Amino acid sequence: MLVNMKELLKDAQDGNYAVGSFSVANMEMVLGVLKAARELSAPVILQIAEVRLKQSPLEIIGPLMVAAAENADTPVAVHFDHGKTEEKIKQALDLGFTSVMFDGSHLPLDENIATTKRIIDIAGKYNASVEAEIGCVGGSEDGSEDIAINCTKPQDAVRFEAETGVDALAIAIGNAHGNYKDVPKLRFDILQKVNEITNTPLVLHGGTGISPDDFVKCSKNGIKKINIATATFDCVEQSVRQAYEQDAINGYYDLHLAEIDGAYQNAKKHIMIFGSNNKA
Question: What is the pTM of this model?
């Protein structure tokens, strides 16, 4: 069933677990994620980032994601990730997305707050949730930029929460988009401090490559939404590659099933780590 992301994150706060937010690029990835959610009785979030729309146009992938969520057996939110432009954020809302992110992490704090408040006003007309980001998560969503990590200042999080009332807040604690060049060293001191002095559900971007133990520690210290993008794409590719190596592809529909299985296996693994299984 299609739900508001705010509902999922409130349940995650009450139950002390995290919800997986899985980036998708085609129907097969959507089907794989929802297969895992159904099997594990887990709430999930389907998401696509604005930077990915050149490969998966929003007017095509968006209705597919919304329809899949509406027909799912477990609660599913549909989220527009890393929204950069008001135009595309509004398009996602018009298509029925139940959550949008405005990524103003590159802006001065005052401007980030002001623009986030404007997006919240727009999203409120659709009864949709809003996620924002402060600090700067490393890398970039499509891997095209090597953006340096700028960890979130806890007092900035307090101010941001007070002035915007945002539904979810992505913070930077040493995490980065894409595949990590070295083992990530997360700043749990920053996470714990932000968690202590704010009430907003926190979001972890750059989940690919973080250890299961660190995921669990994050989920117990305020992180209630964890984004998984690169791992999804990598697992789908690996599943297809392995199927060809094993001569298991004898036509398009074998390829179709291999893609679904890659997304399914990846989502299933992360749902178990995040502790959201049996929480639907």
Answer: 0.92
